């Protein structure tokens, strides 16, 4: 189902009333879910002999934190989970330095929000050691006021802890905060935090049965806002 032509205008109107914006990272600011699926499949196969298809990754793991995904793949074996995570981290940093995944249009959108006085943070289930190099390389590190990573919370999405922490760091009330997400786990976390949510990526243009829940704004492409 294609997104309505008025979707970008509706989201811009939402942003006009926002004090703060919280961006998810993988699949939202960074267009890298295909990369994550491939790297997790490589790590699962090479570290513990498991086969993980892109479909299984999408159904089971998109939106969850990297530590939670690795723990699930390792069936709770902490040492094995740490090996999977280390494999993933090394491969991810090599790949994004070879082919950056944060589009210039996304950087321009963040710059536009900051110039308008909107406070911006990243709230992600990935590790700080993966997030910070990507933000630095893209030029976003000088624009983002705060980051909340899986290192900083006890419970990952769909728990709202990360989003609530992000709004707290920005000094913004939940009701005046807008979240951008690409996963249903992230949407659930945003709604549990009492925040308005914009859904981007494949789910935003899916059928109503599998796409955006009620009271969530489907956008499609984040770049549509960078006019």
How does this structure look, described?
- The chain starts with 6 loop residues before the first helix and ends in a 7-residue tail after the last strand.
- Helix 2 crosses helix 5, helix 4 (66-73) crosses helix 5 and helix 5 (78-98) runs parallel beside helix 7 (128-138).
- The chain is an alpha/beta fold and 227 residues long.
- The chain is globular, with a radius of gyration of 17 Å.
- Helix 9 (184-192) links the parallel strand 4 and strand 5 (196-200).
- It contains nine helices and six strands, in the order H-E-H-H-H-H-H-E-H-E-H-E-H-E-E.
- Strands 3-2-1-4-5-6 form a six-stranded parallel beta sheet, with helices on both faces.
- The longest helix has 21 residues, at 78-98.
């Amino acid at each position: 189902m294609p997104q309505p032509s008025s979707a970008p205008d509706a989201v811009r109107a939402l942003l006009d009333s926002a004090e703060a914006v919280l961006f998810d990272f993988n699949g939202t600011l960074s267009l890298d879910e295909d990369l994550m699926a491939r790297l997790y499949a490589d790590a699962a196969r090479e570290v513990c002999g498991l086969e993980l298809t892109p479909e299984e990754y999408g159904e089971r793991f998109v939106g969850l934190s990297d530590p939670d995904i690795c723990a699930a793949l390792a069936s709770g074996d902490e040492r094995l989970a740490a090996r999977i995570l280390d494999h993933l981290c090394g491969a991810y940093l090599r790949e994004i330095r070879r082919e950056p995944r944060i589009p210039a249009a996304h950087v321009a959108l963040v710059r536009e929000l900051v110039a308008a006085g909107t406070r911006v943070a990243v709230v992600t289930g990935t590790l700080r050691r993966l997030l910070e190099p990507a933000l630095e390389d893209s030029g976003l590190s000088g624009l983002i006021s705060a980051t909340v990573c899986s290192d900083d919370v006890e419970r990952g999405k769909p728990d709202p802890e990360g989003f609530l922490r992000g709004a707290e760091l920005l000094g913004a009330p939940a009701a005046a905060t807008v979240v951008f997400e690409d996963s249903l786990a992230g949407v659930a976390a945003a709604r549990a935090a009492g925040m308005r949510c914009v859904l981007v990526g494949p789910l935003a243009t899916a059928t109503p049965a599998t796409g955006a829940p009620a009271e969530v704004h489907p956008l499609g492409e984040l770049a549509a806002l960078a006019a």
